[in-house]
Amino acid sequence: MLTRREFLERVATAAVAGPAMFHAATAAIPPPTRHTASMWIYLWDLVDEGYDVVLPRLREHALTSISLATAYHTGKFLAPHNPRRKVVFLEDGTVMFRPNPSLYGRISPMTHSLVSSGHDLREARRQADRHGMQLRSWMVCCHNTALGTAHPDLVTRTAFDDPLYHNLCPSNGDVRRYLRSLVTDVAAHGVDLIELEALQFQGYTHGFHHEREGVALTPATRFLLGLCFCAACRRGAKESGFDIQPVLNFTAATLEEFFRDPDTINNKYPTIDQLPADILEPFLRWRSGVITSLLEELQSGAGTVELRQMMSIDSSAWKLTSVDPAASARTTGGILALGYVRDGVALDAPLTTLRSLLGGKALTLGFQVGLPESGGQAEFLDRMRVARAQGITSFNFYNYGFIPLKNLAWITQALS
Q1: Tens digit of each residue's pLDDT (9 = 90 or more) over 96-133
Q2: CB-CB contact of 356 with 329 (8 Å)
Q3: Number of domains into which the chain is organized
Q4: Burial tier of 86 (Cβ tally within 10 Å: 0-12, 13-18, 19+)
Q5: What is the distance between the alpha carbons of residues 382 and 148, in angstroms, rounded to a whole number?
Q6: 406 and 370 in contact (C-beta within 8 Å)?
Q7: Closest Cα partner for 381 from 409, 410, 352?
Q8: The CATH number of the domain where 162 resides is what?
Q9: What residue numbers bound the domain in which 184 lies?
Q10: What is the pLDDT of residue 327?
Q11: What share of the chain is helix, strand, coil (3-state, %, to 5)?
């Protein structure tokens, strides 16, 4: 059974997977150049280890910024170098700042317990300034099981009207107001940038507690099971002149047939690309417009603070999650692309395509530094070599709390 992150990473690498090979780690790295490098990090990392320990450590390893989780989902995380605890159970769907209640409508943020003890976004801002680092907000948008459970009418719905509680639907007006309020609230804290994760239509897979499947879902059937047909989507499609009913009918009928006899559908639709384009493509284009218009609303709410929508580097994933990198970059000035591929060979072609598509807009690349996701030091350095050879100077690295501290030296080596 795939976790949510494993599913997203498989989607991200589906079209770019290549031979299990990489350039030699000792291949020439381009000469030093001015760069920005941000580390994704959690508030409890800073609190448990100490601001005066973590921030100087990151600076010593060529990091110029931290991307602090300020609105986040649940999880159970292993924290190998945390001095207070090695396993962290997260407080689901909370924010790491004191919300301004006047901004919000029906949905109000839930506040993390650390905030009441004086550790929040403002304190992180103060500490980052002391240590000469930028502070970015890392905000998870439409993935929030706690809010979805509290407000089941706001979540995505399958073709059978089953709620997917972990997915807030970006078509829903209350969800859109909540996200805009959140962005406005965070921007007022003086952050240098806001990174938007999960600003998209998400899928079926989540990695929920004791999540089980007794039938082997394929990428095609898993994709269909995650499509949203909630009341807000049906209403929004109708208002835009798009007839969503044929998509709903096809999705429900195909899944019902799959549940009766998986082999029949597996033979008929062995991959996502074999699904009928005449039915699904117009639907996916309509959904992409939903996300683009939401991003425009969020940028308006952010004022002068720039946003960066996070998305896969893989073009096949853009369609499945209904994101448009070119439109996103036009709205906000750039994107944050997740380069979650194994090596430089797999990165080269999609990075070239993406850079061409963005037409000179800012591009930040996010890379794994932990194991086993990163592949290892050689693969990491190879990806960095390819990125720098293509002129990329802005990077994010995942994730401080998860990785062995010695892996920080990989970043220093790659950027030196």
Answers
A1: 999 999 999 999 999 999 999 999 999 999 999 999 99
A2: no
A3: 1
A4: exposed
A5: 40
A6: no
A7: 410
A8: 3.20.20.80
A9: 4-415
A10: 97
A11: 45, 15, 40
